[in-house]
Amino acid sequence: MGKYLNKVFLIYWKDIRDEVRSFDNLLSTILFGVMLIFIFSFAFQLADLDVEQAFSAILWVSIFFSSVLAIQRSFAKEEENNVLDGLLLGTGDRGSIFLAKFLCNLTILLIFEAVITPLLWIFIGASGVKASLGLLVPALFLGSWGLAAIGTMLNGMTVQLPAARLLFPILLFPLMVPVLVAVIQCTAAAFAAPGESVAAWLYFLASFDLLFVIVPLLLFDYILEG
Amino acid sequence: MADLLEIQNLTKKIGFKNILLDVSFAAQSGDFLVVTGPNGAGKTTLLRLIAGLIKRTSGKILWNGSDYGLAHGSLGYISHKSMLYENLSVLENMVFFGRLYEKYSQKRIEELLKRVDLWLYRHEPAGVLSRGMQQRLALARTLAQEPKLVLYDEPFTGLDLDGQKLLRNILAAKRQRSIQILVTHDLNLLSGLEYGNIRLQRGRVVQERG
């Protein structure tokens, strides 16, 4: 188990260092997210909606579209020069590659959210509104977990196909619908009056997240072989 | 103790098409087998099956009598694609794969990079190296693993004359300690080396010469 986790960490750390080194990838994702929330906030001002109603929807639509940019690059470097074969020879278990890529995508999404959530807060003028951080932070974490897990699995499935860049977002959206519905409910509840329970949505989200990590871990051997 | 690789009735089908059919042979430490055959004969598929990179339809791949008994990291694979990260430097590639294969040694890395004439380029990204230099780096990375079984898929691709000579020297030197299986179209490149030949045609062994 120790060796397995060492290899997961080795691939994860290499990917994170790569992201930091070629900062343009992360920067382009953040810039895209900022542009989206700016446009949505502008539209929101014109429509004159309540902050409580609009915040979670704008936030998660922005996160979803920006994450497509971030996640669809997960296996791009491995696709060049058949590096994936080199990783497979070293790890022996394809699940460890999935786990490393998933953790890297989750880290990137959390960094991205740490930047755009406060910006959205400012842009839509929510500074006067009270929000429960105890609910907002778990909602962000669980939503990102689901997005990273499903995205990594689909990227592994599509990366070797000729129309990968087209297929990835098309396949991602239907699978993400349950996560998006649940996470928007949980995020919106962070702004609602105390006492409104979203425990059922949180359990649903956690179960869904767990499922989409366990299933690819078991099936990644077949997924990567295509 | 000498290691033994046994391939028994190995078959790979994709859909209804037989890519490999009932391929059997055995090799032990010190053996150098060269697999030849026309395009589409199943040579690369055979190597990828032995390496565990794709799944077999049926048959057995035994290492010292046990199925898939070869520890990962003890198997070296050199393809005509370098399997290197282009954005990582020469040294970073060696360190990353050394750690992944659990055979990391700074001293050994330095020694191997000097042997393949890449020590001066150790801080350059692998992506800026020429095709031949990338192939030398792939060789160094594989040798760093000290593999017991080495699979070469068209390893001479992109190598200049010096590179080809270096590879022939490595093939001769590795012979003492490993099983080596090499796929090539051009047997002239192996002149001066002793080897057994397996000829494949349409996924079947049509000739085996020890």
Describe the 3D structure:
The complex is a heterodimer of chains A (226) and B (210). With 226 residues, chain A is mostly helical. Chain A has one domain (2-223). Helices cover 83% and strands 0% of the residues of chain A. Chain A has helices at 2-21, 23-47, 51-71, 76-79, 83-91, 94-123, 133-158, 164-189, 199-225. The model of chain A has no long low-confidence stretch (mean pLDDT 86). In chain B, the strands form two sheets. Chain B has a six-stranded mixed β-sheet with strand order 6-7-8-3-9-10, with helices on both faces. In chain B, β1 (4-14) and β2 form a beta hairpin. The chains are: A mainly alpha (226), B alpha/beta (210). The A-B interface holds A 3, 7, 10-11, 14, 18, 21-22, 77, 80-83, 85-92, 221, 225 and B 51-55, 72-73, 75, 77, 79, 81-88, 96-97, 99-102, 134, 141.
Question: How is the secondary structure organized here?
Answer:
The complex is a heterodimer of chains A (226) and B (210).
Chain A lengths: L1 H20 L1 H25 L3 H21 L4 H4 L3 H9 L2 H30 L9 H26 L5 H26 L9 H27 L1
Chain B lengths: L3 E11 L2 E12 L3 E5 L6 H9 L6 E6 L2 E2 L7 E4 L11 H11 L5 H10 L15 H14 L4 E5 L7 H14 L4 E5 L12 E6 L2 E6 L1
Parallel strand pairs in B: 3-8, 3-9, 6-7, 7-8
Antiparallel strand pairs in B: 1-2, 1-4, 4-5, 9-10
